[in-house]
Write a structure and sequence with these properties.
The chain has seven helices and three strands. By secondary structure, the chain is mainly α. A three-stranded antiparallel β-sheet has the order 1-3-2. The radius of gyration is 20 Å and the shape is elongated.
């Protein structure tokens, strides 16, 4: 079990709650938070003990986070266990996935505009607002992420802080 103070435990619980807004289970959110705080990759046993849940639950949600490319599974020489850590660009991947979901909404809007014979003026107004926001905001997010990816110094993780 990874040792954590009260603030870290509260952080884990709050991210578990927040994960539901992104379509993840609370355990997946708590798993993400634990890995965000972890000083090194953790095994399923360590994650289960840290979160106080079953190994089966952690395994299921670790697999979901793997599918979303938020975490990576690693192995250690001479150890049969799998270990998990956050992907180096986990946050950028999450943003890109969200932007892709928003772009899919625009595609659906484009489809209904092309196929519907008579849309209400209010719907057209809303669709135009979505399109204006997308063309302004989402393109800027894409540009910012591309710039971040081209700049290795911005991607370099900070080293461990010296203790006082």
């Amino acid at each position: 079990m990874v040792s954590m103070d009260k603030a870290q435990r509260l952080f884990i619980d709050r991210l578990g709650d927040a994960a539901e807004t992104d379509g993840m289970s609370p355990i997946a959110g708590r798993l993400f938070a634990a890995l965000l705080l972890a000083p090194a990759p953790l095994s399923l046993d360590e994650l289960a003990a840290t979160l106080g849940v079953s190994k089966a639950s952690v395994s299921t949600d670790a697999r979901r986070l793997l599918e979303r490319r938020i975490v990576e599974r690693i192995t250690r020489s001479g150890d049969r266990k799998d270990y998990y850590e956050l992907a180096p660009d986990f946050f950028a991947r999450g943003i890109r996935d969200r932007v892709a979901r928003w772009r899919r909404i625009q595609q659906l809007i484009d489809g209904v505009r092309a196929d519907a014979s008579d849309l209400p003026v209010a719907a057209e107004d809303r669709f135009e607002t979505v399109e204006a926001i997308q063309s302004t905001v989402l393109d800027r997010i894409d540009d910012a992420l591309s710039e971040w990816e081209r700049t290795p110094a911005k991607r370099k993780p900070r080293r461990k802080r010296a203790s006082a």
